[in-house]
Amino acid sequence: MTEHDTPFIVEEWMGASPGGHVILKGRRCRHCDVVLWPPVARCEACGSADLAPAELGPDAELHSITTDWTGTFLGYPHLVGQVRFPEGTFVQGFVAAPIDGAPAIGAAVRLVPFPVKVQGTELVTYAFEPTGEQ
Amino acid sequence: MRDVMVVGVGTTRFAQYEDRSWIDHGVEAVSAALTDAGLAWTDMERAYCGAMGAVGPYAGNRVGHELGLTGVPIQNIDNASASGNSAFHSACLAVGTEQCDVAIGFGVGQLGRSMGNNMGDEGQVRRFVARAYGNAMAIFALAAKRRMHEFGTPVEAFAKIAEKSKHYGSLNPHSQIRKRYTVEEILEARPIADPLTLPMCCPVGDGGAAVIVASRHVAARLGAAPVRVRHTAMYGETFQQERAWGHALMLAEGARDFYETAGIGPEELDAVQLHDATANEELEYYEALGLCGVGEGDRLALDGETGPGGRIPVNTDGGLISRGHPLGPTGCAQIAEITRQLRGQAGPRQVEGARTGLIQQTGAGEVFFLHMLTRE
Ligand SMILES: [Zn+2]
After folding, report:
1. How far, in Å, is the centroid of ligand 1 from the Cα of A106?
2. Does the complex come out with an ipTM higher than 0.90?
3. Do B193 and A68 touch (CB under 8 A)?
4. What domains can you pick out in chain B, each with its CATH number?
5. In this structure, is residue A23 part of a structural domain?
6. Is A40 inside any structural domain?
7. Residue A23 sits in which domain range?
8. Burial B113-140 (b: 16+ CB within 10 A, else e)
9. What would the pLDDT profile of B290-300 be if each residue is shown by its tens digit?
10. Mind listing the pLDDT tens digit for each residue in B313-329?
11. Residue B172 and residue B341: Cα distance in Å, rounded?
12. What integer is the mean pLDDT of A35-46?
């Protein structure tokens, strides 16, 4: 649950973090040290089952960004981004910014709660919010 | 493995149809390939059908029912965009390993009416929504934007590829989109996910395509133009953490292995078919396939080297973004086009003197096929 009691869209994938941010619940491979998200049963890089819980975020760097003009899922045009975490893991998601205020590639972002609706149910996923720093 | 020859090809026009089913497309494509080869359905000893799950189970058998219950065993394959390539690859292996003398690979698809409800149950939908995975074109757009950032690639390079594709599509009666566009029209068209506009993205549609392969002695008996499957190979996804969009890196690894085994390198190719779900994907694969060096794809596109009269024409039938991409049949349509080029039957889009062609296909980024055909 988020602090506002709206359920996360996939509870085992994400959680609340102090300061109103969101973290992603991944796995670190004890064999090859790769950090994977979403969580997996075996390491995608080496096949090891020796995985430890690992948190990603809330800080990341914007790797790429686009405007989805078709508005898939949200019903209106919106930003979609891809970030790289310090652990080297890439993740795609919504960007919490207006289209005309889109952050540039390389911008610092933080994971924040982002409301979405799936088949009429109000849920929360993560989004990348620019911190204002490069 | 013994030599395998392409003896028959058939394609339907890819488009969105209200009055035809994917079964109709399958029957038309297989029948066209049989006519092209001078063979009958009763001559087929093995059949392989590529189709995406959305058309329903055992798609190949449902087409086979319309053609005749001759006892030919039909194997169904779902490998996303590469389903048709899988079918062709399997047919080649069946003939190459002497399981039979004649085999057919075909594909069917009906994307226009089958994709909307294809995301699965609510749990699956939630997993898509969570990551903003709704618009497949946005994933390619993210790769395009990153490329522009890293290499300084101008958007005109993507537009030029789309313009080339539409030009070739206008020359192909089986192309879904036959309208030509200027670079300016492409840049000003409806945005899908920036920098990609509608003409830079593949349409959805229905269709069928088929390829018949045979042993050398059967091909000789048929008097077929000697088009040989020089090499065919399948590669699986490898873990990539170097780049968010690792398709091109994986393909580059596979291509090196493929050229070495084939004994023919990229500099000897006359025509190429590749998976261009979007114009920027095509550009990435120019480099991955070694048609130019890394970072040189922009120049190759902008100079028109992959278009009519260029150094290495690519997607001469219009490719995914003009000919269309109903998934199941796409791979067989690619092989049909290279076969027509090597036979000198490609009409106004003919690459003069083409003798060696390469086909590349990606299935959901999780499987890659490469096939090389040569004219003897
Ligand atoms: Zn590992």
Report:
1. 28
2. yes
3. yes
4. 4-116+204-222 (3.40.47.10)
5. yes
6. yes
7. 14-130
8. bbeeeeeeeeeebbbbbbbbbbbbbbbb
9. 999 999 999 99
10. 999 999 999 999 999 99
11. 12
12. 95
